[in-house]
Write a structure and sequence with these properties.
By secondary structure, the protein is α+β, with helices and mostly antiparallel strands. Helices cover 35% and strands 22% of the residues. It starts with a strand and ends in a 6-residue tail after the last helix.
Length: 497
């Protein structure tokens, strides 16, 4: 009997797959890293074929040992904004995937601002003009890959974010879900469809865009003969959401005012704002969170470009630590950062600053500064950035957020979550099952194929591992946050342009 859901969780640095049972417990998993390509400063690329092959391998590992017919449905979640264009007939990508972190289109974004498109884009798409989103990445490929524009205009090329690419590989269907579509800068979040005028303004042929679909419906069934996935032939792919919306769903943030932060490569804070899109006045963006059973839920979102990646930088580039847990141990060995502030603007600053020209800085260094102070300052930088987002969210939503649900790889850090609770003055709740992104994709698929019957049933599956409450004196936290704001000012607009 089909009693499991397979979730494909395609992230920025690895492809993962997790199998969940009816109780929301993990019964199988697979994971493969893939190559990061940095062809120029500020450019980030992935090989789309490597994404697909590692994802297929991860899925094969996750389902190994399960009986044939055990998988009832497949959900997909993905790194968002990352842009892939491929030949409709051959399936061959025309170029590497341009990753969400990539800043190569900064100048094109400036041109769009000069053309006076900021208001038009925000009012329609909920987004601010930034190199982060997919539209300018599509335009760059059409302008810079020989023959790409002509082929696109002739209807020979397809565009997709990563979930579109994976669903196409598995089923042949060319679709994108509303949550991912709302991260392209081409999608009308009010009418739930592509905006023809915006596509025209950006020079993007609409024939290359996928069909927009809800987050919980059958997009197609797995084709026979996919190496390693033969047992999945005929299984419906029936749930999809961008990774951050999937995490919001997986954290069971089903009511307006519920909020979560994912402490991953970047940090992404989302707040459920209900069935009406709330326009941000504080530097956040508005996206579709999900559409289930014809009901649309919107989210306010703030994105931090460098969160957990800052810990990786300490380890891989500075060699100040050998592992991520060592960062915690070092940070706990001192009672403060000694006045050191790290601004990890390696690829600019995201919300609420949206400064494409900011760059990283370490400020407040003295002769007495040691590894431990820098390690602590790195963890503080993550908590400061999330505080920026939460304060903006309170301002936009006009209501208090009473609790923050935490997930993502860096959420295993007790000291980081304690810093976060201290700065925000609210509880921070870490779930017992931290794979909330994958579970969100599984839950969306499971609602469609009958694994679960309601949001209430899903909510009952969530358990807390630990709830962190404010411990540090508020005045100290306020002083530290003021220093952070000063440091951000110093790092801002660093690159001449």
């Amino acid at each position: 009997m089909a009693s499991y859901i397979l979730a494909l969780d395609q992230g920025t640095t690895s492809s993962r797959a997790i199998v969940f049972d009816r109780q929301g417990e993990i019964v199988g998993r697979g994971q493969y890293p893939f190559t990061q390509h940095y062809p120029q400063a500020g450019w980030v690329e992935h090989d789309p074929m490597e994404i697909w092959h590692t994802q297929a391998q991860a899925a094969a590992d996750a389902i190994a040992g399960l009986p044939s017919g055990a998988i009832a449905g497949i959900g997909v979640t993905n790194q968002r904004e990352t842009t892939i264009i491929w030949d409709k007939n051959t399936g061959v990508p025309v170029y590497n995937a341009i990753v969400w972190q990539c800043r190569r289109t900064a100048e094109l974004c400036e041109e769009l601002k000069r053309r006076g498109l900021s208001e038009r884009i925000q009012s329609t798409t909920g987004l601010l003009i930034d190199a982060y989103f997919s539209a300018t990445k599509i335009r760059w490929m059409l302008d810079n890959v020989p023959g790409a524009r002509q082929k696109a205009e002739q209807g020979q090329l397809l565009f997709g974010t990563v979930e579109t690419w994976l669903i196409w590989q598995m089923t042949g269907a060319h679709v994108t879900d509303y949550s991912n579509a709302s991260r392209t800068m081409l999608f009308d979040i009010h009418k739930l469809g592509w905006d023809a005028e915006l596509c025209g303004m950006l020079g993007i042929p609409m024939c290359m865009l996928p069909r927009c679909v809800s987050n919980s419906e059958v997009y197609g069934t797995v084709k026979p003969g996919i190496p390693g996935l033969e047992v999945l032939s005929g299984v419906p792919v029936c749930g999809a959401a961008g990774d951050q919306q999937a995490a919001l769903f997986g954290q069971t943030c089903f009511h307006a005012g519920d909020a979560k932060n994912t402490y991953g490569t970047g940090c992404f804070t989302l707040m459920n704002v209900g069935g009406r899109a709330v326009r941000s006045r504080a530097g956040l963006v508005t996206s579709v969170a999900w559409s289930v059973n014809d009901a649309v839920t919107y989210a306010l979102e703030g994105s931090v470009f460098n969160g957990g990646s800052t810990i990786q930088w300490l380890r891989d580039e500075l060699h100040l630590i050998d592992s991520a847990p060592e960062c915690d141990r070092l940070a706990e060995s001192v009672d403060s950062s000694g006045g050191v502030i790290v601004v990890p603007a390696f690829t600019g600053m995201g919300a609420p600053y949206w400064d494409m020209y900011a760059r990283g800085a370490i400020l407040g260094v003295t002769r007495g500064t040691g590894r431990a102070h820098i390690a602590r300052a790195v963890l503080e930088s993550i908590a400061f950035q999330v505080t920026d987002l939460m304060l903006a969210m309170r301002q936009d939503a006009g209501c208090d957020i009473t609790c923050l649900r935490a997930d993502g790889g860096a959420s295993v850090s007790d000291i980081l979550l304690q810093m976060q609770a201290d700065l925000l003055r609210i509880p921070v709740d870490r779930p017992a099952m931290v794979e909330t992104t994958a579970f969100g994709a599984a839950a969306l698929a499971g609602l469609n194929c009958g694994m679960w019957s309601s949001l209430e049933e899903l909510s009952a599956l969530r358990r807390s591992d630990r709830v962190f409450t404010p411990q540090r004196v508020q005045a100290e936290c306020d002083d530290a946050y003021r220093m952070w704001k000063r440091a951000v000012q110093r790092a801002g607009d660093w690159i001449e342009h």
